[in-house]
């Protein structure tokens, strides 16, 4: 809903030739393949699936700490968390992006492999395994004591 304003701002900042405003698309994997870094600037989130998806497709992430964002990646390895969801430090975001891009260029295979490994920890199978471990650990521990 703010696409036109974003395009205008990109023009004013002379960044329009470096940005691609895709709009709605069903070719999500294709677009992640074109990204150097996924930047998520949400103020409110649950568990942001877009961060998991990006990593699964080998794309590192930078995000605000909204919701469960910090739980979705390994900070300093597959992405970075910003200081605030309400007032994120944009200079810090740019530094993190630059670091991830430079790291990816220096070792093109390392970051995508680490990001994919992190994303796979959120597979339904692993999520159920972790959920069961959390739910049943006290019961099993109590049963072993009796």
What would you say about this model in short?
By secondary structure, this protein is mainly α. It contains 6 helices and 3 strands. Strands 1-2-3 form a 3-stranded parallel β-sheet, with helices on both faces.
Uncertain runs with pLDDT below 50, 5 residues or more?
none
Given the structure, what is the number of helices?
A: 6
Shape: globular
Strand content: 5-15%
Percent of residues in helices: 40-55%
Quaternary structure classification:
single chain
Largest sheet: spatial strand order: 1-2-3
Largest sheet: 3 strands, parallel
Distance between the termini: 60 Å
Q: SS-based structural class?
A: mainly alpha
Question: How are helices and strands ordered from N to C?
Answer: HHEHEEHHH
Radius of gyration: 18 Å
**What is the average per-residue confidence, as pLDDT, rounded to a whole number?**
84
Got a strand count? 3
What does this structure look like?
- With 146 residues, the protein is mostly helical.
- The chain is built from 6 helices and 3 strands; from the N terminus they run ααβαββααα.
- Strands 1-2-3 form a 3-stranded parallel sheet, sandwiched between helices.
- α3 links the parallel β1 (38-40) and β2 (61-63).
- α3 crosses α5.
- The longest helix is centred in the C-terminal third of the chain and has 22 residues, at 124-145.
- It is globular, with a radius of gyration of 18 Å.
- The chain starts with a helix and ends with a helix.
- The model has no long low-confidence stretch (mean pLDDT 84).
